[in-house]
Amino acid sequence: MPTLRRPSSWSLRTRLIAGLVCLVALVCLVVGVVTELALQRSLVARVDAQLAAAGGRSTTAGGDSHSDGDSVPNQKFPDTGTRTGAQFLLAPGQATGTLGARVADGRLTASGVLDDTGSLQPLSAAESATLTTLTTLPTDGRPHTASIGSLGDYRLLASRTADGDVLITGLPLASVQSTLWQTAAVVAAVAGGALVLTSVAGTVIVRRTLRPLRRVAATATRVSNLPLERGEVALADRVAGADTDPRTEVGQVGAALNRLLDHVTAALNARQASESRVRQFVADASHELRTPLAAIRGYAEVTRRSREAAPPDLAHAMGRVESEATRMTILVEDLLLLARLDSGRPLTVEPVDLTQLVVDAVSDAAAAGRDHHWKLDLPDEPVTVRGDSARLHQVAANLLANARTHTPPGTTVTTRLTATPETVTLAVLDDGPGIPPELLPQVFERFARGERSRSRSAGSTGLGLAIVTAIVTAHAGTVEVTSQPGQTVFQVHLPA
Fold first, then answer.
1. What string of DSSP letters covers 417-442?
2. CA 99, 102, 107: angle at the middle one, nearest 5?
3. In the CATH scheme, what architecture does the domain 226-345 have?
4. H-helix or E-strand spanning residue 172
5. Taking a C-beta distance cutoff of 8 angstroms, is the pair 306, 331 a contact?
6. 222 phi and psi, to 5 degrees?
7. Domain 350-495: which topology?
8. Per-domain residue ranges for the chain?
9. For the segment 160-210, what is each residue's pLDDT rounded down to a tens digit?
10. What pTM does this model have?
């Protein structure tokens, strides 16, 4: 069974329409109740006026209860031939449905009602019993409402005659109740029509009124879908001038959004300019450092190859100079490659036999890491992709070097290549201790290194996985990692 959403989760349009419909419904309800009450009071007042006249006629006609007959001759009933004793109801002018009763010494002595033909009819036993309970009706000249069995509700008026008896005269409220029900039905029908009309018209009006707000929201949505985290970003979208009128609430929102986009554009341009300067500096510095580093390494090798034996301290120092120069050369080359990739320099695009590339990379890794176990899992058919062969080889080499560097001796490293009609996946799996959970979200960031990889002997620059990410992204691919103790998996997905 679907659950109803809370009104607070409704859209603004739905809440406005619902509020409008509820307001109209409340107004219709108040109008209906007030109309019914006013109409009831008016109709009952008219019945009371008619009742006062009818009571006066009954009192005049039935003033002497001890005469041989009432002032109006007794009526003989065809079925029994008896007299009701309520002949005072036959006074001229009495309306159909008029009820009458005589009370003497607290006892009901006569009763009757006029039918549709104006004939006097006796009351049933149940109706007479009901009237008996009303013998104490006060003779204060004020009408009272009571239900007389099957006859329905009546307005009753008690008046005292000259001989001391009490005459009760009543007029039916059936016509009043019928009129009230008809009026209620009409009011309900009108209110229902008004609610339907309000819903339709309100939907149209609210939809048209909120159209500028939807345009503002559409602009904000388009901007929110732009990749703003890196690179040069062009925020050309702006709210149209028609939706930035400061005299309206929507215009104020649109103008504020435009100002915000202007500020964001300025900030992104400043960030891009700063990143460009940094990339250019790194590229220039790396390029300029390659020559002196090569010279340092060359002079160190020349010193080491000298015919004259160098003192042990000098030989050790020159060895360290050559080693650090080599390490710094690797770092400079990595930085230069990242700077080139960041600048969007196009890669060579050609068919690359990824199967042969993986075989070569694993062979190189096995030669460099003889204390690890290296396995290959390749499909039967060669896998080919379009890309830069040298850069893709570097991806595989960096992933294998990462597994070799950060796992202990004896670890098994499996390189797996799979292909589908849409995607080629290169996976490097190892059964080492895994990547610490706190480091896992940052493994592809630059200079993200575990404690062990900071050692000089490891030779890691902390840029290997960052280079993998940059190269794979340049090939319109993705790279991901999952790790737990005993199983770490790096997967590179490339378009087939």
1. EEE-SSEEEEEEEE-SS---TTTGGG
2. 125
3. Orthogonal Bundle (1.10)
4. strand 166-172
5. no
6. -60, -40
7. Heat Shock Protein 90 (3.30.565)
8. 14-178, 226-345, 350-495
9. 887 788 888 889 999 999 999 999 999 999 999 999 999 999 889 888 888
10. 0.52
